[in-house]
Design brief:
By secondary structure, the protein is α+β, with helices and mostly antiparallel strands. It folds into 2 domains: 252 residues, Major capsid protein gp5 fold; 123 residues, no CATH class. It has 9 helices and 21 strands. Strands 14-21-18-15-17-16 form a 6-stranded mixed β-sheet. It has a 4-stranded mixed β-sheet with strand order 1-19-20-4. A 4-stranded antiparallel β-sheet has the order 9-6-11-12. 33% of the residues are buried. About 1% of the residues have low confidence.
């Protein structure tokens, strides 16, 4: 028997595999699988999930965080002017001088809690063993999500600036320029806050009242950033190639507008604009109906949802509030659908920015150091500054090494001609949460000696970031990341905002 088995093995070794009838008739050859997860195939998977999402929080990163001392609000008083009446200081012999007038202002900022939660089921934890620590990821992504939302609130949180009801739009019909049919068209508009603007879209609609069911089953209600809808305006078009130019008087505090149009009482959302006008050239494509929106005269819903009672006021809101002392300019209406863009002064500057800088110097002897913009304004600023510069005012440095010549120019700073130094530099920075059509200037240091202001702006915390791993109530781990804080800005006149900027 043994010799017979050896003979068979010798014959198998001598014959090619495919010539062997015992192996060829079956799947005797190992071939590469056609599937990454099938067959005897190694699955080439890097351990650990790649976290490829942006965590961009430029304001949160640079604004100091300080500890509060309890209470429900941060309060402070400021002396905003000395010798406010401009009294002359000359005195006659043996007599005393006049008594100066001192201007003061009281400030209050209420603390707000912020937080977000994440979960990991037992089964998800089991399945991830050997690949990643899913419980650590739940805590990490929770903290990062909280920071991202906090950044947006620092920029544009709106607790106290209701947008109210906008005026009735003004409509102008044209028989050309679009595809509107001959009929009566009704148009109305809704103003949007920062929060409303960055969360609005034609397909997704605008957010009014938000009712959020929390992890513990409680429900929070707050405004999503939309003011009241306006009354509707009606215009009649003729032919089949008509268009409508719609404008509305700018609403103070609004960073955008939602436009609805259609047959009377059948208006749908058709456009979200960062300026106070729109060119209507076709039927509205959104699904949100104007009839579902609240109205300031409605007996059933007369709430302005442009504010959020769970948020603190951000920099934009603090600057745009009446009486803040900050520089706040709204660009003129301009051409419907195009607006009024920033204007080159043909000497390397921007007219509107220089007006803001001059005003801040003339009134408060202030020189801001940063301009925060959307990518749209960053591009437009570069084009206007470069196109308006005389060749003698430019200086280019070229590197002649092979492969070192590249295209594209980006203006990263702006020269302020109104400062004690004769000229100072403002950094131009793109902010990930800045809506198009808006520009913000900030000042990190006041030029006032012994001002008793260490930080011009700061996050004051009753409790800084903390994590809670909640007791188990089901077969999943639950984590919450929280903070309790408010944004303090000690001198809003050191801010400047320009809104309603056209894209050109």
């Amino acid at each position: 028997m043994a010799s017979s088995a050896l003979e068979v093995l010798e014959k198998l070794k001598a014959a090619p595999v495919m010539d062997n009838p015992h192996l060829a008739k079956a799947n005797g050859t190992f071939l590469q699988s056609g599937s990454a997860t099938g067959g005897l195939t190694y699955y080439d998977l890097d351990l650990g999930a790649k976290l490829v999402y942006p965590v961009l929080t430029p304001l949160r990163n640079v604004i100091p965080r300080v500890s509060g001392r309890g209470g429900i609000q941060a309060s402070w008083r400021a002396i905003t002017a000395i010798n406010a009446s401009g009294m002359r200081v000359g005195v006659s012999e043996s007599n005393r001088g006049g008594v100066q007038a001192v201007a003061t202002h009281d400030y209050v900022a209420s603390y707000k809690g912020i937080g977000i939660e994440s979960t990991a089921s037992f089964e998800a934890f089991y399945a991830a063993q050997g690949f990643d620590d899913i419980r650590a990821l739940a805590a990490k992504t929770g903290l990062e999500s909280l920071m991202l939302s906090e950044e947006s609130m620092i920029l544009g949180g709106n607790n106290s600036l209701p947008l109210g009801t906008p005026p009735i739009p003004t409509l102008t019909a044209s028989s050309t320029g679009g595809s509107l049919a001959a009929q009566s068209w009704s148009v109305l508009v809704v103003p949007l806050s920062h929060d409303g603007m960055i969360n609005a879209s034609v397909t997704g609609g605008v957010q009014q009242l938000i009712q959020r069911t929390n992890a513990d089953g409680s429900i929070d209600k707050f405004g999503g950033g939309a003011g009241y809808k306006s009354s509707n305006a009606i215009v009649t078009t003729t032919g089949t190639t008509s268009s409508i130019a719609a404008t509305v008087t700018a609403v103070p505090g609004a960073l955008g507008y939602a436009w609805f149009w259609g047959a009377p009482n059948l208006e749908s959302l058709g456009a979200i604009t960062s300026i106070n006008s729109v060119s209507i050239i076709g039927a509205a494509t959104g699904t949100l109906k104007a009839t579902s929106l609240n109205n300031s005269t409605s007996a059933t819903d007369n709430t302005d949802y442009s504010t959020n009672n769970l948020a603190f006021d951000g920099l934009l809101t603090q600057a745009m509030k009446q009486g803040s002392g900050a520089y706040y300019a709204i660009q003129p209406m301009g051409t419907p659908g195009i607006g009024t863009p920033l204007t080159s002064d043909a000497a390397g500057g921007i007219v509107e920015i220089d007006l803001a800088l001059k005003s801040m110097w003339d009134n408060f002897r202030l020189s801001p150091d940063t301009i925060w913009v959307n990518s749209q304004e960053a591009l437009n600023l570069s084009k206007k500054i470069l196109a308006g510069s005389s060749s003698s005012a430019q200086r280019f440095v070229f590197n002649s090494e092979q492969g070192m010549l590249g295209g594209g120019i980006m203006v990263r700073t702006y020269l302020n001609r109104f400062s004690m130094q004769g000229a100072s530099i403002l950094d131009i920075k793109i902010h990930p949460n800045m809506p198009a059509g808006t520009l913000l200037m900030t000042t990190s240091q006041l030029p006032y000696p012994l001002s008793n202001v260490g930080n011009v702006m700061q996050i004051r915390t009753r409790q800084d970031y903390y994590q809670v791993e909640w007791p188990l109530r089901s077969r999943k781990y639950e984590y919450g990341v929280y903070a309790d804080e408010v944004l303090q800005h000690y001198f809003p006149p050191s801010l400047a905002v320009i809104t309603n900027i056209g894209n050109a």
